[in-house]
Design goal:
By secondary structure, the protein is of the alpha+beta class. It has helices at residues 2-29, 39-42, 50-65, 77-129, 133-148, 167-182, 186-194, 196-204, 256-259, 282-289, 298-312, 324-349, 359-365, 372-377, 385-402, 404-411, 439-442, and strands at residues 207-211, 216-218, 226-232, 235-238, 245-247, 252-253, 261-262, 267-270, 275-281, 433-434, 446-449, 453-456. It contains 17 helices and 12 strands. The protein is elongated, with a radius of gyration of 34 Å. This is Cyclic nucleotide-binding domain-containing protein.
């Protein structure tokens, strides 16, 4: 289809050039009304109307590009000179046009021959193995839909020349392309604000893909390896006998795969239109998130909160779970210590930009540069930047304290921000597999590891956040 569109564009371009030449040719013919030796008067175009005059000029223009002839010929030296210029220009333009058309048709012929050869092999396979007609129809329909994807959005993986870019440019490009989609998740949005450099690596690890109409993304029982974000189109998620859930752009699927080993508990497929997806491979993303191995690591704390919540609310966990209120509470619980640590250091040093301040905290101060509260405080007379940041931090920590009870009610757990024993997180063991079929053990606060043993305690639900 793209080849045919390119050929059509070339034809339109040639006709546009011929239109301009035809208008110029007619202007040359009526340039001097007192002369009798012009092609306009020689063909008596004045009495035949404007349309006939234009089509005659256009006909003459086209004949200069092709080996054709007509009754209109130059009658004076100006018209003869104009004709020579047009013919020389036409030799260059038309030869390039012909070569482009030839290459395009050759590509189309090769493409069709390869596809036809594959289809012949497929038909022979069906015939040799006596595949049922109903299954043949389903496979043929799927292949037909896949062929339509050749005209879908171009993905970065398909542009090999991008591999020549340095890593810094690749990261900047990935941030602009994938950040709007990935930051729809509250955790990724907040984490990227704290770790701007690491977040670019996370965006670089993202992959985009197209899913044909009524194509399957994953099925029940498959081991989940990636988290998916829908950027366009629509999908349907079905779990058992429950009502199908519709997934719209800005939503995500398979978040549990980020924090625990997870098997899909439902079936996800696209609707009647093609979908565009952005995926994050879990193992790759976890390696990036685990760069901060400190006790205030937002990723580690979010993983702990996630596992603790669903240890008690296991019936709610699915591939499309996205309770915004609970998510916001989890994010607040995960990053409260970042705010407290920054406030503690800011009050102690009174100079947030102190060169002795830990690198993490220096990066965190940039998070407040775009806060609306900072813009309001900047208007206060006599208030330094350090004082502004201190006031912002105090306000945010105060808000965390006010909302603490609400977070505890939503999450049903003790706030980790007030847990003094949380200064050192529990040792993280090997990743575990949560077996959706063994609900009786999950309900007792246990997780199944590889479907064999049971390991008590929430810590066994974590992925390895450090290497």
């Amino acid at each position: 289809m793209r080849i045919l569109v390119r050929v059509l564009k070339l034809l339109v371009f040639i006709m546009l050039i011929n239109h301009l030449i035809a208008c110029s040719w007619y202007a040359v013919g009526i340039n001097d009304l007192e002369r009798e030796d012009t092609w306009v008067k020689a063909n008596d175009l004045k009495g035949k109307g404007t349309v006939y005059a234009y089509t005659t000029a256009l006909h003459w223009s086209i004949t200069q590009f092709t080996p054709a002839s007509m009754e209109v010929v130059p009658m004076n030296e100006l018209e003869r000179s104009f004709t020579i210029v047009v013919i020389v220009s036409a030799m260059v333009i038309f030869s390039s046009f012909i070569s482009t058309i030839t290459n395009a048709m050759t590509q189309l012929r090769n493409l069709n021959s390869e596809r036809n050869a594959e289809l012949v092999k497929l038909r022979c396979f069906f015939s040799d193995h006596k595949v049922s007609a109903s299954l043949v129809a389903r496979i043929s329909s799927c292949i037909h839909q896949s062929n339509k994807l050749t005209g879908s959005r171009v993905h970065s993986e398909g542009v090999s020349i991008l591999e020549l870019l340095p890593v810094s440019l690749k990261c900047d490009l990935a941030e602009e392309v994938f950040a709007p989609t990935l930051c729809a998740h509250p955790f990724i949005l907040t984490w990227s604000e704290y770790y701007s450099r690491e977040s670019k690596r996370l965006f670089l690890a993202a992959r985009s893909s197209s899913l044909g109409a009524k194509h399957e993304l994953f099925n029940t029982g498959q081991v989940a390896e990636s988290m998916y974000f829908l950027s366009s189109g629509a999908m349907v998620y079905v779990r058992g006998d429950t009502r199908p859930a519709r997934v719209s752009p800005g939503q995500w699927l398979a978040e549990p795969a980020f924090w625990i080993k997870w098997k899909h508990v439902g079936h996800a497929s696209s609707t009647g239109k093609n979908c565009e997806l952005v995926s994050l491979h879990c193992e790759t993303a976890i390696r990036i998130l685990s760069q901060d191995a400190s006790t205030i690591s937002g990723a580690r704390r979010y993983a702990k909160t996630f596992a603790a919540y669903f240890d008690k609310q296991f019936d709610q966990l699915s591939d499309v779970w996205a309770d915004v209120e609970v998510l916001q509470a989890m994010v607040s619980e995960a990053f409260i210590k970042h705010e407290k640590e920054l406030l503690r250091h800011s009050v102690a040093s009174r100079v947030v930009k102190d060169t002795k301040m830990p690198g993490l905290l220096r990066r965190m101060t940039s998070r407040f540069s775009g806060v609306s509260m900072a813009s309001r405080l900047s208007s206060e007379e006599g208030m330094s930047q350090d004082e502004q940041i201190n006031l912002i931090l105090h306000e945010r920590v105060r808000k965390y304290g006010v909302d603490g009870q609400k977070r505890r009610e939503i999450l049903g757990t003790r706030s980790m921000g007030s847990d003094s024993s949380d200064e050192v997180l529990a040792p993280v063991v090997s990743p575990v597999f949560r077996n959706p079929e063994r609900r009786q053990s999950i309900g007792r606060g246990r997780f199944a590891r590889n479907g064999l043993n049971v390991v008590p305690g929430i810590a066994s639900a974590f992925r390895i956040m450090t290497r």
